[in-house]
Design goal:
two-stranded antiparallel sheet, mainly alpha, single chain, Protein-S-isoprenylcysteine O-methyltransferase Ste14, membrane, transferase
Length: 242
């Protein structure tokens, strides 16, 4: 998430923020809300039906790897390549962003579920030298800290920033003169991608999953790769140099 936040960042209620970072936006009017709710429910039902298959070790690993490629490859191709301009030319900016937003929300859902099935499929695989109580305590602490920072950062920056709306439209969300450091951005350079991802490591530790720790690191490395290749150059171009 951007290292710069605005004084007018969204202050949505906690349930809306939690659903938003999970893939379902309910803060952008009512036009597409029924379709979003239906798609969210159908996806959750599909996850439930496919859980016995997805939680087998080989399938879980392949699924998580596929999600990694679609998520970070899709973000880079869309926001750092020609896909967004083609969508805008075809559908117009508002409709194109709505389609992108739904697709990104599905990727958010799949990212979380992919890590969940990997942790389930490869549970109890930590070295025996690590006491179970230490894994529980450390895991619980990391989950609490990571969730707190992710929600705090998303609330501070706003869900439009969380979904990279400025990158999709190709212009800043606000005037550069109004940018301020706020919330967790006052003391952390990038709390969303840093501290905000600690919950994934905590969940893996709690479940004793060595593969879960590896995939948590892979997904965090992927978002930093996207940040350095696509997001940071946009911030420099659209905000800092204005």
């Amino acid at each position: 998430m951007h290292t710069i936040t605005t004084a007018r960042a969204g202050t949505w209620r906690l349930p809306v923020i939690l659903l938003g970072i999970s893939g379902l936006r309910l803060d952008r009017g009512t036009r597409y809300r029924p379709a979003r709710l239906l798609l969210f429910a159908l996806t959750a039902a599909l996850y439930y039906l496919l859980t016995p298959i997805l939680t087998t070790p080989a399938v879980a690993t392949a699924y998580a790897g596929t999600v990694w490629l679609l998520y970070y490859g899709g973000l880079c191709l869309t926001l750092g390549g020609p896909v967004r301009t083609a969508l805008i030319a075809r559908f117009g900016e508002d409709r194109a962003y709505a389609l992108y937003e739904v697709a990104l929300g599905l990727l958010f859902m799949n990212q979380g579920f992919a890590q969940a099935v990997v942790i389930h499929a490869h549970g109890n695989s930590l070295p025996a030298a690590i006491p179970s109580w230490a894994a529980y305590v450390t895991g619980a602490a990391l989950m609490a800290v990571g969730t707190f920072y992710k929600v705090w950062a998303a609330r501070t920056a706003g869900l439009d920033t969380y979904y990279c709306r400025d990158m999709f439209t190709g212009r800043p969300l606000t005037d550069a003169s109004e940018l301020v450091a706020a919330g967790p951005y006052r003391h952390l350079r990038n709390p969303m991608y840093g501290a905000g991802n600690l919950h994934a490591y905590g969940w893996a530790l709690w479940s004793g999953s060595l593969a879960g720790l590896a995939f948590a690191a892979a997904f965090q490395a992927g978002i930093y790769l996207f940040y350095h290749l696509c997001e940071r150059p946009f911030i420099q171009r659209a905000y800092v140099r204005r």
